[in-house]
Each structure stands twice: as C-alpha cells, then as structure tokens.
C-alpha cells in the first residue's frame, strides 16, 4: 500500500493540488463550524453558571417557604437544629441608579443582595465556604465593622464602572411593596465583591430588609449541614411549610432553556459537513475517472480489487484527517474570535475570565474526538462509492475503452418508502425534553429518499421529451439521460442536498419572521407603551402610582388607555411561579390558536394559556385548576378557555381579564399602560407629555409600538444571522461538487465525444448536446431540491419549532428568494456541465478514436 500510495496516489495529488485542497477545505469548514458552535455554547453556559455560583455560592441545601416568604423566626428555628453547621439568610431586590444608564440606554438597574456578613465570614474559614465571592473586600482595612456598617454598599466591578473618581456615596431609588411611591436611599460606598457579571451591590441583611420594605422577610436560607448528614433524608424530615432543595444550578437551567436553540444550531453546522462529504465524493470520483486506465493497468499487473478498494479509502481517510485537524483548530479560532468580538463575558459585561479561560476551561478532549470522528466518518463515507467503482471494474474491458461499470440503480419504491418513513417519523413526539429526535430523523430520511428518486425523476422528464419532434441531438440527449439516470443522482447529490437545505431554511426563517410580524400586530395594538423603570423584588415592573394613571388619562395627547397588570401565579404548592398578565378585553385580541367550546365550570374564572403552558404544564382547553395569585395572596379556581400564540416566552404563561383578576385578588395595582394617541399627535411629543406627568420622569420607561417592532425584528435577524453563513457555505460546497462531478463524467466521455466528432458532429453541435443533457439533469436536480426543501421546511415549521420552542407558525413561501435559489442551482449545474464538456472537447477527435481502438 505504501508503494501504491507513493507511485500512484501522490503523483495525482501533486498534479492536481487544488481539487484535494478543495475537499480538505469542505471537511474543514464543516468540522470548524460544528466545533466552534459547540465551544461558544459551552463558554456561554460556563460563564453564566460561574457568575450565578459567585452570587449564590454552593450550599448543601437552599431552604425556601412552600408558600410566601420565609421569616426571621424560620431562621432561628433552622439554626437551632443540630444538623445545621452554618446558615446564611438572603433577601434580594432591585433598584434604579438615577443618572446612570445601562447598555440599552434605559436607567441602570442594580441588583441588591442582602446577606449575613458574619455567617459568610464564619463559613469562609472552613473547608466549604458558602459564597466566598460575595464576601466584601474592604480597602481601608476596616475589617468586620466596615462590612457591617449601616447603609453601606459593597459593589462588584460592573457597578463600580459607574462610580465617579473619588465618589463615596450614591443614591438608589427603590420600589417598596405595598406602595407606589419609590424611596430614594443614600448609601455609603464600601468594599468590593467579585460576585456577578451585572451591576450588583452586597449589603448587610438587616439593611436590606429595611430599605426594601421587607422587615422580617427572607427570600431563602443557604444551609451547610454537619459532616455526615444526608441532605436528602434531612430535607424530607422538615415540616411541610418548608421546601429544601439542592442549590439551583443556573448553568443547568440555562442549558435546559437554550437546549433547543443549541441543538438546532449545531445540526445546521453539521449539515455543512454533510454537504461537504458530497464534495469529497465528487473529488474522488473525478480522480477515479482520470486514472481509470491506470487503475485497469495495475489491475492487470496484479493489484487486487481489495487493494484498489483500500487505496481509495486511504485517500478519503487522508482527506478526512487533514480536514478534521485543520477544522478543529479553525473551530477554536472561530470561537476565540467570536468571544473577542463579544467580550470575554459574551456581552454580559463584568466577567473576570479571559477568552482563553472560557474556551479551555471546559471539557475539550471528548468533544474534539467526537467532532473529529464525524469529520473522518464523512470523508470515509464519501470515499465508499468511488472505492466500490474501482473495485468492480473489469481491467481488460477498461483497457479496451469501455469505461466505468454501470452504476447500480435503487428501485423507486426504496425512495418512496424512505419518504413515507420520514413522514411517519415527523409525527413522533419529542424525546429528551424538547428535542425533536423524530423530526431530525425524518429530515434525514427525506433527504436520502429524495436522492434515491432522482433517477426516476430524470427518466420521467426524459419520457416527457418523447412527445417532442425528435431531432438527432434531442434523440441523443434523451437516450443518454435515460441510460445515465443513476449518474445524474451522483453528480447532483451535493447541490441537491445543499439546495434542499437552503430552501428549507429560507422558508422556515421567512415563515417565522412573517408570523412574528403578524403576532406583533396583535401583541402591540396601541401607539405607545408605558411602565415604571423600577423593579420589584420579583424583577417585574413596579406598580405605577394611581395619581400618575389619572394624569395620563387626562392628557390631550392620549385618546384612550388600557391598563395592564403583570404579576405571577403558582399552579401548585411549592411549584415555580408562572407569568400572569391581566388586561382589559378591549385592549387588543389575543392570537388564539384553540378555544374551549364546552361547558363553563361554575365559579371558575376564564384564563388563557400560551403554547408552552399547554405543552409543558398540561393546561389544555377546558381544564379547571386552582392557582395562588402571588400579589393578591388568594387562591382562585380558573378554567382554561383557549391557547394563544406567544413568541416572547418559552415557558408557561397565563392571561386573564383585568376585572376578573381584580375581583379574585383584590389587587388594584397597574404595572403597564397601553396608550392610543389622539389624531395628529406624534409619538415623541406624546412620550414627552407622558414622562412630564410623572413626579419623577426618570422613573417612567416608554416605548413606541414601532420601536418595539423594530427591536423585536432586530433581535430575530441577529439570532438567525449565522444561518445565512451556514447556507452560503453549504451552497458553495454543493456547487463545487457539481463542477467536480461533471468534470469526472466529461473526462469519462472523451472517447464518446471523439467518436461523435469523427462521425460528423461539429463542436457546436456537441455543445448543444451537452446543453440539452445538462438542462435535463440540472432541471431534475433543481426540481428535486425544491421539492425536498419544501418537505424539509414543512418539518421545520410544523414539527421542529413547535416541539423545540413551543412556537407554532404558518408557512409562508418567499417566491423571489426560492426562485433565485433554484435558478442559481440550475445555472450552476448547466454551467459546470458546459465547462467540463468544453475541456473534454478540446481533445483531438482522431486521437480519442485511436484510444478507443
């Protein structure tokens, strides 16, 4: 094998380095995109988890109340239990830093974390500190007294960026529960903490309870147990008013939330590798066609079919290894470049980790081996068909000029069966959470089934030509297309797959964007939207003052207003709260997908749920449930009356009429206003009037409907920007594959062209013949790619998106873009065939006939 490689393969590679380099680049790009996406996802998750752990620490258990907040009495009870070694009470809130703005141009929000400094210091002296990054480092050496000083904030790096040189005090505006009047509190600037990425301030627990208006209340208690205590058994022994769980893994929670997006993005990157394998196949097929006489000669001289087979596989392995190694290196470079552009904290601003730490701090060996194995496998699979061809040649016949053996044709029922199997797999429910495994398998079956049906499609189009007047060229083109239909599948495989994927992604993204725009019209019916820039302890907008609401209604610029209450509800004791929105029925219609037309339960208030609530929480139309309204503190029966489309969330959310909510909860607070402007009023003038009506204009956050639409579409386009590059790479690789495949076929037909020239056909006539043949096969490939793409897009639109993100949509076909894609694929196939034929026709006709004798 070494001698064959040195004397047979290496000279061919040396004489045509561009083709080999092209195949290596195809594998390299596929591996680099997939590995780079994996590294970026891992870095984002690791940095987010690190920032969360720096604030929350790593206790053995986190104690919360089954309903409502914990109290100081709960803390005393816990500390008296012999199994508890240390306990840190925590209360959290948010405040506005007046005069400072965030990255979005809105007033700067700062997270307040109240903790027991003494408990943190005590745990820091042990082997397992509770939250070491939260312990303040005091610059002036004041020690414990400085940490416990009244009204003192210890700021992290992200917050300190907003301090002026020499600034020792700052004032924060805080929304307190039970009142709509915010409180301005002046604090001293204390030490430093290394916790968190976003602006954060740590203060003593007693101060936090006082300034947040939550005296005696606690959000949670972080616990460390005595060595030898089984946390699970101890947690099960606690009274039912408590709920003790392992610490929330924020990284795992973000991983669950973004799993669908990451999997879909990773599979798109792997599609580039899948398409690249067809280019490797085309390059090796071209090399096989060029060296066919040499293959036959070495076969006559004693090189067995098995050795020929192994040599082609070795060539594919060499391409795969080179492309994989370069792809892994390029993937690291792409990820590092993205991190350098976004910042080492991926846009979170404040992380202390460098790009190298984010990349190299995650497991690399097994992912690199996995993606490397995929790259090598893609190259080896691509080499199988040329290897089989060389193995099956009859050397004596090839030396007589009879060319390659006829390709094997799969029965049409195989392709049809794969298409039917794909349709059946698309109906399977998601596995592993929200991962649509059946849909991905369906897309693969559709691709393979479509490829298997290409010969049948070519023969069908050839049969349709039989009704046309048969001139000599048309007769030759028709007969050749019918006899070489299998070769059409091989030559068009790369561009067909690339076109199908490009069509599928174009239709899916276009459908999603069009559906989003229609949804925004439903979700944003008013001209201007108003809310407080302050946040409550739950992170939701603070209530607007009643006097301000009355003042806005009396403004001449406002024709009418619709109030809204954003709050939360708990569906079961101890369950995580879900979003609840209460607004008036005339404030715009919800984009309903399903309605309950059955019997209305007496005493149950109507509620509508989003698709995530239906799929994740089982809130199907007609179901009656009892929920706890967190702001009203009451329990109320509800009945699901319908399901609405919600593109703003991937978690469950409820909507109910504002009057029903007020009656059930007793909560009269309003958190948002939707305003319709009077005729002739501009959004800017109305915005100024709305802000001027507030006692503190900086506390009012406004946005015009057009701004919210533009921002939503900007976020959408940015989220799918990478798919443009993935489609471009796949299409480029597929088009190069067509060129290489057509070159291989043209070289194999040199003797045929020479014979036709000898029989009297002119060079121009032969070019017309090639044009007819290429139009026939290229048209079949373009039609097959379009049909496959539409089938794949249906799976993406109607299966993958609803199962992955719980977002349904209607299919919209962007006709102009689809026509451009199909026309590009057709023109590339025809142009590649003509280019390859022109080169083959450059051979002398007499010499070609002599080679055939």
Automatic annotation (TrEMBL):
The keyword Transmembrane helix applies. It is a multi-pass membrane protein. Keywords: Cell membrane, Membrane, Transmembrane, Transmembrane helix. Residues 493-692 form the MacB-like periplasmic core domain. Signal peptide: none annotated. The keyword Transmembrane applies. It is found in: Cell membrane. Its main location: membrane. Coiled coil: none annotated. The chain crosses the membrane at residues 20-40, 263-286, 292-309, 321-344, 364-389, 410-432, 438-458, 492-512, 724-748, 769-798, 818-837. Residues 267-394, 728-843 form the ABC3 transporter permease C-terminal domain. InterPro entries: ABC3_permease_C, MacB_PCD, Membrane_comp_ABC_pdt. This is FtsX-like permease family protein. It comes from Pelomonas lactea.
